[in-house]
Specification:
alpha+beta; Metal Transport, Frataxin, Chain A; globular; 3 helices
Length: about 70
């Protein structure tokens, strides 16, 4: 069973905004940055759990921390 749920793209952007990431560009994907790290979030609804886990890890969050921010 995945450690993270499959969530919508809007929820992913909302969670990442809470920890300091800002939207840099919107097109087929949403690109967010905190000044050092750049994240690419696909516009799939829902984003599958494996991809969301990788995005959370790149953002420096554990699965438990990400779930708490949801």
């Amino acid at each position: 069973m995945p450690k993270l749920p499959a969530i919508s793209q809007k929820d992913a952007v909302r969670v990442l905004s809470k920890i300091g990431f800002r939207m840099v560009r919107e097109s087929g994907h949403v690109v967010m940055s905190d000044g050092q790290t750049r994240l690419t979030i696909p516009r799939h609804n829902p984003i599958n759990a494996i991809a969301m886990g990788a995005i959370a890890k790149d953002a420096g969050l554990t699965p438990a921390e990400f779930r708490d921010l949801l």
